[in-house]
Design goal:
Strand content: 35-45%
Organism: Nyssa sinensis
Pfam families: B_lectin (PF01453)
Largest sheet: 4 strands, antiparallel
CATH superfamily of the largest domain: Bulb-type lectin domain
CATH class of the largest domain: Mainly Beta
Keywords: Glycoprotein, Signal
Shape: globular
Domain Bulb-type lectin: 12-130
Protein name: Bulb-type lectin domain-containing protein
CATH architecture of the largest domain: Orthogonal Prism
Length: 213
């Protein structure tokens, strides 16, 4: 798992309907600040679709779509269709990168590293931060029943062997994937189902109990 510390304002870059990306052409979309990018990055002998932090060398991948799929070929295309669907075209057919309740009318990659789809009322209908892979970004909470799964290596972001879970009893627990016994816990079981894990822009990682309504 990765905890990325970066001070980021919520500037964004709006993506036009009909835009597309490919590994050999225009490879990514990024906000004006250039802190993060969304698009194709190298994976093994091919490519994957994800989000990465651009201000480090090598660049730090923070989210990957369909992370356990085989590498994509160079003739794959990521299409932001005129119907508001984010579609991956590859040799095996079509895959949806973002499954949203209805069609989106606009999309943005925010300066926080979050990739967001909006409906015609400018309401968020899908965002990458709701389905984290191995990384927690500043300002991104890990909510109840969400988890991070480690990557196999720095170069291979397929699912690894460990899982960090924000349980519905308020306990943050670190498990090996293949066994039920925890390696570590925050020892906050019984705190309730409104506890979330937060990373702030100062790099402080903490649990917070949200006020009940």
């Amino acid at each position: 798992m990765i905890i990325v510390g970066a001070t980021a304002q919520q500037r964004n870059s709006s993506i036009s309907l009909g835009s597309s990306l490919s590994p050999t052409g225009s490879t990514n979309w990024s906000p004006d600040s250039g802190h993060f990018a969304f698009g194709f990055y190298p994976k093994g002998n091919g490519f994957a679709v994800g989000i990465w932090y651009t201000r480090t060398l090598p660049q730090t991948v923070v989210w990957t779509a369909n992370r356990d799929d085989p590498p994509l070929s160079a003739n794959s295309t990521l299409l932001w269709s005129s119907e508001g669907k984010l579609i991956l075209q590859r040799n095996q057919g079509l895959d949806a990168i973002a499954i949203a309740p209805g069609s989106a009318s606009s999309a943005s990659i925010l300066d926080s590293g979050n990739f967001v789809l909006y409906n015609s009322d400018s309401q968020i209908i899908w965002q990458s931060s709701d389905s984290p892979t191995d990384t927690l970004l500043p300002g991104q909470p890990l909510l109840t029943d969400q988890w991070l799964i480690s990557s196999l290596s720095k170069a291979d972001h397929s699912s690894g062997e460990y899982k960090l879970v924000m349980q519905d009893d308020g306990n943050l627990v670190y498990y090996p994937l293949d066994v039920q016994n925890a390696c570590w816990s925050s020892k906050t079981a019984g705190a309730g189902d409104n506890v979330t894990l937060h990373l702030d822009n100062k790099g402080q990682l903490y649990l917070m109990a949200l006020a009940s309504t």
